[in-house]
Amino acid sequence: MVRIHHYSRIATAAVAYMTLASSSSQGVVHAEELCSVVPTSYSAAKTTYPNLATALGTLEQYSIAAWYTDRMSTSERSSLLSGITSKCSEDTRMTIVVYGIPSKDCDAGLSSTGAVQSTSDYQSFLQELATAMGSRKVLYVVEPDAVGLLANGGCGVAAGYLDNLKVAVKALSANSNAQLYVDVGYWLLVDASNTAKVASIINELGGSGSVKGITVNTANYRSTDEVAGYCTNFQTAMGSKDMTCIVDTSRNYHGSATSAWCNVKTAGIGKPPTSTTGVSNLDYFMWLKPPGESDGVCSDTSQSLAGTKAGDFYNDGFQSLWDQGYFVSEKGMTTISGSSSQATPAPTTTGGSSIQSTPAPTTTGDNSTTAGTVAPAGNSSTWTSATPTPTATPATTSTSACERLLVL
């Protein structure tokens, strides 16, 4: 089912990405404004569930990354690209998740179908995107799942993921105004051995173009503090702080004390997309998973809500995320039921664990506009100093696993 999106912007009036002085872990930089589109699942949900209109309208003011995938038809991809480039002004930075590597999701096979079946297909798929973006400012999240299936010596090796990731980095880096962040599953950054494997892959990809850093926690629930520690582990393995990280905060307000991944009962919407992260190794908070879209039907109801088909809007899940999240807890907005009471936060942890399926949207298009410009979470000043990078998370034992993105 194709997920058409509306247009949305976020004014991020503070730190965009850190330029660190060689003698200090702190730095100051210019502001950045992110621009993206709003999932049509929200438009339909406001009609079906009128009581969600205020909450959904609030989220629509912020940037939710658009997904460019080979599961879309050529016309759907064209519609998405023409829409986002025409409606996002030249001074904003568009945010796009690229998901079309040949044999993607080679382990589970849940997202393996699509138009891209070969490297030649992939080159055409990428060129279509690169041509549409031209020299515009854009932030790419590159191929969720792929590094996870490489670093653990899994099926991504035989499927040629490394060579095809190099193709992607080269094609998308041709635009000097593009920022590339390669997606990495957080569980790969828990222990030194797996983190070293990730660093080796990222170093090799950097030889094909310009890689600014990695994204962590895509469609997952780990706390921002925990992810910052994993980013430190990554930088330690890289032997440099030059590469930095993005954290998906869409559902991580309380973090997760367990390995639960499916419509977690205690989850809340995290801080909105912003470049004011307050942490020197985190360039952005971003919403890569639209809050409210289901992880699927969950089997462990002790920790998870029942759920619905992966990628569909889930009313009960959205209400839970909203009522237990940032806007109620920190901005004083009422819960969807109308009460201002807040849910008890779940305990957080910095431990690592293996991950099962974590679905995310992958088909987008374009529709009527609905723009908003809002202040970022946190500090609203134009210039700010970042807090020091967190110390590295102690290495623990973790089972490597694939972050599977269910494409519908």
Short descriptors:
408 residues; disordered C terminus; globular; 11 helices; alpha/beta; 10 strands; 10-stranded mixed beta sheet; TIM Barrel
Structural classification: alpha/beta
The CATH architecture comes to Alpha-Beta Barrel
Question: For the terminal residues, how far apart are their CA atoms?
Answer: 6 Å
* Range of helix content: 25-40%
How would you characterize the overall build of this protein?
The protein is α/β, with parallel strands linked by helices. It has a single domain (3-366), classed as TIM Barrel. Helix content is 27%, strand content 14%. It has eleven helices and ten strands. Strands 1, 2, 3, 4, 5, 6, 7, 8, 9 and 10 form a ten-stranded mixed β-sheet that branches. Helix 4 runs parallel beside helix 7. The radius of gyration is 19 Å and the shape is globular.
